[in-house]
């Protein structure tokens, strides 16, 4: 049986946004229901180095894919988020933690304009434990999140019945409770 190819595993601080990100956006999807709880605005950043076999968004692994992030897009996201029925923002990719220039600019503005009234979710190939050893920009992004879906997508653990995850190794983490307890706290609305 051939050996299954696995995602790449970086050393702490090996991959830095400043060295890789071109600040491109693969896509922006306002008012969707699939990228987390409630009605969400989802921004898909470009570029990922994990190269998970079976990635559902392979095109977005390219840091050149899509369009440059603009002030106009940011303003549109803020306008869309201001709708009362929108629960929050979701960061996806690509890899948000390799695009901290874009993601931090946006989440700082959301926190400034909405406080904690809008929640912020993110998917990442990094695990929580890896992020704890990462660069200051990655840690700042993490500290501004409410929910983190962590871990690389693993084809051998693929399970399409999982809530908001593609493979069973991935976790849905309550970021603020985890930071307060200095340990991973799983989201209390997890179905399975």
Descriptive account of the structure:
This protein has 192 residues and is an alpha/beta fold. The chain has one domain: Alpha-Beta Barrel (TIM Barrel). The protein contains six helices and seven strands; from the N terminus they run H-E-E-E-H-E-H-E-H-H-E-E-H. Strands 3-1-2-4-5-6-7 form a seven-stranded mixed β-sheet. Strand 1 and strand 2 (39-45) form a beta hairpin. The protein is globular. The model has no long low-confidence stretch (mean pLDDT 95).
Kindly summarize this structure in a few lines.
The chain is of the alpha/beta class and 192 residues long. The chain is built from six helices and seven strands.
Q: Are there runs of 5+ residues with pLDDT below 50, and where?
A: none
Average of pLDDT: 95
How is the biggest beta sheet arranged?
7 strands, mixed
CATH homology-level superfamily: Aldolase class I
State the shape: globular
Order of helices and strands: HEEEHEHEHHEEH
Total separate domains: 1
Q: Might you state the CATH topology name?
A: TIM Barrel
Strand order of the largest sheet: 3-1-2-4-5-6-7
* Total beta strand runs: 7
Structural class estimated from helices and strands: alpha/beta
CATH class division: Alpha Beta
- The N- to C-terminal Cα distance equals 31 Å
CA radius of gyration = 16 Å
Strand content: 15-25%
Helical content band: 25-40%
CATH architecture: Alpha-Beta Barrel
Instruction: Tally the helices.
Output: 6
């Amino acid at each position: 049986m051939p050996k299954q190819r696995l995602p790449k595993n970086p050393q702490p601080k090996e991959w830095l946004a400043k060295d890789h990100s071109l600040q491109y956006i693969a896509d922006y999807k306002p008012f969707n229901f699939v990228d987390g709880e409630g009605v969400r605005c989802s921004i898909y950043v470009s570029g990922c180095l994990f190269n998970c076999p079976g990635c559902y968004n392979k095109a977005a692994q390219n840091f050149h894919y899509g369009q440059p992030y603009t002030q106009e897009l940011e303003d549109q996201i803020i306008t869309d988020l201001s709708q009362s029925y929108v629960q929050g923002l979701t960061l996806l990719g690509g890899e948000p933690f390799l695009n901290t220039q874009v993601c931090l600019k946006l989440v700082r503005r959301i926190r400034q304009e909405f406080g904690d009234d809008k929640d912020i979710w993110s998917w990442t190939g990094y695990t929580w434990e890896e992020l704890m050893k990462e660069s200051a920009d990655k840690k700042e992004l993490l500290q501004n999140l409410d929910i983190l879906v962590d871990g690389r997508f693993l084809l051998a653990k693929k399970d399409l019945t999982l809530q908001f995850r593609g493979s069973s190794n991935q976790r849905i983490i309550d970021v603020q409770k985890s930071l307060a307890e200095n340990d991973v706290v799983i989201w209390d609305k997890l179905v399975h």
